[in-house]
Recover the amino acids of this structure.
């Protein structure tokens, strides 16, 4: 089942601008992860935020988590052409310790215009 | 050079044929996963395995089968019972319980002719 929904489905911005994409989910989670996928390739893990965390940074990435609203956002600052990709959020359900299956959202297609 | 490999990159199959997709990892990871991705969609879990000789169905297991005879290998068979097998298939692995990041292979694109 697709738990997460990303918003927007597609986003085009000028190089150097910031990109923000959002993810909503339905059930209680242990953690939420963001992945990047270049066209026709596998996924690459970007960042993980646990349910007791509210914000996390990694380089140009900033992730926030609001468990009361069951939502997360990914901010990419100072975008580059190489950031062009699809971005997916994925959740691990609370209580799923040991299995830690990921449930993916539908993704945001980000295009950086040089 | 550690990682996950999937082969072949492209695969064509006639209707009614079974086909097996390969997934190998040399990361010494315990858990392995198979996902299906359709155009413009997210990933859906087909099967997963936490240890050798054990595996569980995911959300869309019908028409698929797997085996886990070795820690390094987790092949996926797409059977003729799968009604709409044309898709992009991704294999992933994870170190162990408590380590949440999944590492993905490059994928196999299966087309049924």
């Amino acid at each position: 089942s697709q738990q997460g929904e990303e918003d927007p489905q597609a986003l085009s911005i000028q190089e150097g601008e910031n990109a923000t994409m959002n993810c909503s989910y339905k059930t209680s989670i242990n953690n939420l992860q963001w992945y990047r996928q270049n066209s026709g390739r596998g996924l690459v893990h970007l960042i993980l935020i646990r349910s007791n965390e509210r914000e996390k940074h990694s380089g140009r990435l900033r992730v926030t988590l609001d468990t009361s609203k069951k939502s997360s956002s990914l901010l990419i600052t100072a975008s580059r052409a190489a950031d062009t990709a699809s971005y997916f959020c994925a959740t691990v359900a609370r209580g799923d310790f040991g299995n830690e299956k990921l449930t993916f959202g539908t993704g945001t297609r980000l295009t950086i215009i040089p | 050079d550690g990682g996950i490999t999937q082969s072949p990159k492209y695969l064509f199959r006639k209707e009614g044929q079974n086909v097996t997709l390969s997934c190998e990892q040399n990361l010494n990871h315990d858990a392995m996963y198979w996902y299906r991705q359709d155009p413009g969609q997210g990933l859906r879990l087909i099967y997963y395995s936490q240890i050798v000789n054990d595996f569980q169905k995911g959300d869309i297991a019908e028409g698929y089968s797997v085996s886990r005879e070795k820690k390094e290998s987790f092949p996926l068979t797409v059977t003729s019972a799968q009604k709409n097998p044309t898709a992009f298939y991704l294999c992933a692995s994870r170190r162990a319980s408590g380590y949440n990041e999944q590492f993905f292979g490059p994928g196999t694109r299966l087309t049924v002719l």
Q: What stands out?
A: Chain B touches chain A through 30 residues (CB under 8 Å). The mean pLDDT of chain B is 93.
